Amino acid sequence: MANYTAADIKALRERTGAGMMDVKKALDEANGDAEKAMELIRIKGLKGATKREGRSTAEGLVAAAVNAGVGVMVEVNCETDFVAKAGPFIDFSKKVLAAAFDSGASDVDSLLAHTVDGKPLSELVIETGALLGEKVAVRRMARIEGKTVDAYLHKTSKDLPAQVGVLFAVDGEGDAATEAAHDIAVHIAAYSPTYLTRDEVPAELVESERRIADETARAEGKPEAAMSKIVEGRLTGFFKESVLVDQSFAKDAKKSVAQVLTEASVKATAFARFRVGA
């Protein structure tokens, strides 16, 4: 029998994110040598990479950081929450975030082509999947710039890494700008707006919402004389739900996000929000 303990199995599982039986088999084959077992797990994982290609990657984490007015955020995915909280997966995600900064990339394809540790990041994705025994993917990234940029990460479960991430930028600096940027980033995480301002909402979507509001009001038998006001009121409700600056502020529902920005003497310039798998 190989010379290893339950503690050795636990330690190697934490290092690799591999299943218990896979770890035990590797330790048996390596006669208890943890480093050799880790190498065997990695080799076997590489052989199974093709089989994993079609698997779903609905778990993972969001990582984000800000440096000198530039905010970068990435979503890195895996198959199970067990791997999502494993040390190797978290370490790999840190590499992805660092590469996103270093490369200057604004899209995933450019990021995956960037060289990390002497090889394209895309190869490290495959190698990490081999080590962990699951399909791993870099799903998306965002890069925004501003005089003040806040990065906010939110855990939906205390046992997992951040599942929601937000970048938010404003055009001013100072304590008031910093506080407003952070508070609104937290708000975005909770309220998930789709657009920054009404100007960003596609004209065809606005017309579709107006038509639906009109048809709904008529189906409800609303008086013709009040139809225009009713339709515009419902359209305003759509904007308050979808447009960041029109939303009621999470910390004080009596104010809109636009009012919070005005009080801080800044304007919102950009935002990005990721939720794992969404």
From TrEMBL:
Alphabetized UniProt keyword annotations: Cytoplasm, Elongation factor, Protein biosynthesis
Cellular component terms (Gene Ontology): cytoplasm
Major location category of this protein: cytoplasm
Keyword Cytoplasm found: yes
Region (Involved in Mg(2+) ion dislocation from EF-Tu): 80-83
Domain of life: Bacteria
A Pfam match: EF_TS
Transmembrane segments: none
UniProt subcellular location: Cytoplasm
Translation elongation factor EFTs/EF1B dimerisation domain boundaries: 71-277
A GO molecular-function annotation: translation elongation factor activity
Function according to Swiss-Prot or TrEMBL: Associates with the EF-Tu.GDP complex and induces the exchange of GDP to GTP. It remains bound to the aminoacyl-tRNA.EF-Tu.GTP complex up to the GTP hydrolysis stage on the ribosome.
Family: Belongs to the EF-Ts family.
Record's protein name: Elongation factor Ts
Species this protein is from: Arthrobacter terrae
Phylogenetic placement of the source organism: Bacteria, Bacillati, Actinomycetota, Actinomycetes, Micrococcales
Name of the gene encoding the protein in the UniProt record: tsf
